[in-house]
Specification:
Elements: E1 7-10, H1 15-26, E2 35-38, E3 51-53, H2 56-62, E4 65-68, H3 72-75, E5 86-89, H4 96-103, E6 108-111, E7 122-128, H5 134-146, E8 148-152, H6 156-165, H7 171-187, H8 191-212, H9 216-226, H10 229-239, H11 242-269
Parallel strand pairs: 1-2, 1-4, 2-3, 4-5, 5-6, 7-8
Antiparallel strand pairs: 6-7
Length: 270
């Protein structure tokens, strides 16, 4: 399989599509001459050697595997006949049955990588249609292993939930970092020192979790058991509703994912 996959990425000029393209090239999964990318307005000056086009059907006709990386609201206007080829969607909310119906295939995958694919640190849950073959699944695993870590999950409901939990990627740690930095600057630290301190703390925490491969629960409990300054901070944040705020945010993302899918289904029917 290595290097032999002919991959097309609709929306390859975008952030996520471009990140996936870079990841599969770096992993040697796709040769640059076997990579086709589409753009809407201006051809990007990057990924030299790949084939760029503004014709999505031409992209599909050149490829064995078609990856759709467009905004869900733009999907209803996308015209592309996959002619039975494997279609992988990284769009939130779009159901497998809708992908199959619109793109003339029975082999479809819903996946939800995040922006950390750019650093090969994405977490990607995915689910495949019933007719997707074992060989197809091997390709999907290879693509998203190149982007980080992947898991095949059991239902589209799980994908909808993970849209918020992992699909949002760096947004939640960045939100925490922003709150920490604002407080540090308000305390009197310079913005440069505050930013360096906060970014280093979060990057280090992520690396520690990755290296130790333990449950975050164990890490939190270890700090609570020490009864020091960190325990005081954790207890105060929880009393202020930290856990409830996170749960409400994830619920909002889950509901939004479902609503996006329903909205696209109604547009397709019209």
């Amino acid at each position: 399989m290595e290097g032999s996959v002919r991959l097309g990425i609709v929306g390859g000029a975008g952030w996520l599509g471009g990140a996936i393209a870079g990841a599969v090239l770096a992993a040697g999964l796709v040769k640059v001459q076997n990579l086709t990318l589409s753009y809407r307005r201006t051809k990007p000056e990057r990924l030299a050697g790949a084939f760029w086009t503004d014709d999505n059907q031409a992209l599909a006709d050149r490829c064995d595997v078609i990856l759709l990386s467009v905004r869900p609201e733009d999907w209803s206007s996308l015209i592309l006949d996959a002619d039975g080829r494997l279609v992988i969607s990284v769009m939130a909310g779009i159901r497998l049955c809708e992908l199959c119906d619109k793109h003339a295939t029975s082999r479809a995958v819903r996946a939800l990588p995040n922006a950390a694919a750019e650093a090969a640190r994405s977490y990607t849950p995915w689910i495949a249609s019933r007719e997707t073959t074992d060989a197809d699944r091997a390709i999907v695993r290879a693509i998203f292993t190149a982007c980080g870590v992947e898991d095949e999950v059991g239902s589209e409901r799980e994908i909808d939930y993970l849209t918020g939990l992992t699909g949002s990627g760096p947004a939640f740690p960045a939100l925490l970092a922003n709150a920490m930095m604002r407080d540090a600057v308000a305390f009197g630290l310079s913005p440069q020192v505050a930013q360096r301190a906060v970014n280093t703390v979060l990057v280090g925490a992520g690396r520690l979790l990755e290296l130790r491969d333990t449950s975050p629960v164990e890490t939190v409990e270890a700090f609570l058991d020490y009864r020091g300054t960190t325990a005081a901070a954790i207890e105060t944040m929880r009393e202020a509703g930290f856990d409830e705020a996170v749960a409400r945010g994830l619920a909002a993302a889950f509901n939004k994912s479902i609503a996006m899918g329903q909205g696209q289904a109604q547009e397709t029917e019209i």
